[in-house]
Amino acid sequence: MKQVTYGGLDFVPYINREQIAARVQELAQEIKRDCGDVNPLFVCVLNGAFAFASDLFRAYENDAEIAFIRLKSYDGTGTTGNVKQIHGLTEDISNRTVIVVEDIIDTGFTMKKLVADLEEKNPKQVKVASLLYKPNSLQCDVKIDYVGFSIPSKFIIGYGLDLDEQARNLPDIYVLKED
Ligand code: IMP
Ligand code: MG
């Protein structure tokens, strides 16, 4: 692995594919242990979580289903500014265990809103699995049940994460290089 450049910015290797794969296996086992035989619905938040969700779902060794949503931003008139709306969830989640699968939680606002919206659909429970988490960036109370890696508040790319839609296809995770 060596340095990569996107949008004129240099990135250096940070978490390699073997580390990611090992952690994803552990998370899948943790979720399985907690879920028992409830046939959970994994909800992948597109676009960023596609790689993680694909690996996590295949590592989950019990009955489960998967669905995909997008969060559609619109200009809110409220004080919170840019509110995000769920787009594309057609499954009936009432009385089901939902595992939200996200790539990264930064300020936490996205996840907070998403969980609140899902809760309105009367699921049995909503759990959150995020591959990455920046604890020092968190600005609201959001419960994260499964975290792959807690990382410093630095910009990262790869394994689904993008810089202006580029770099999602990197198999490893890279961090912005500091001068
Ligand atoms: P939050 O609402 O601030 O938690 O926003 C989370 C979203 O911001 C993620 O789903 C990503 O799309 C994006 N994001 C946050 N940090 C990074 C990063 O380091 N690299 C790429 N995208 C990021
Ligand atoms: Mg995202």
Walk me through the structure.
The structure is a single chain. With 179 residues, this protein is of the alpha/beta class. The chain has a single domain (16-73, 83-173), classed as 3-Layer(aba) Sandwich (Rossmann fold). The protein is 22% helix and 35% strand. The protein contains 3 helices and 10 strands, in the order ββαβαβββαββββ. The protein has helices spanning 17-35, 50-59, 109-119, and strands spanning 4-6, 9-15, 41-46, 65-75, 82-87, 97-105, 125-133, 146-150, 156-157, 173-176. The strands form 2 sheets. The protein has a 6-stranded mixed β-sheet, sandwiched between helices. The radius of gyration is 16 Å and the shape is globular. The model has no long low-confidence stretch (mean pLDDT 93). Residues 48, 103-111, 155-157, 161 line the site of inosinic acid.
Number of helices: 3
CATH topology group:
Rossmann fold
Portion of residues in beta strands equals 25-35%
Secondary-structure element order, N to C: EEHEHEEEHEEEE
- Backbone shape: globular
**SS elements, strand count:** 10
Average of per-residue pLDDT values: 93
| Class of secondary structure makeup | alpha/beta
Low-pLDDT segments: none
- Describe the sheet with the most strands: 6 strands, mixed
Roughly how many Å is the radius of gyration? 16 Å
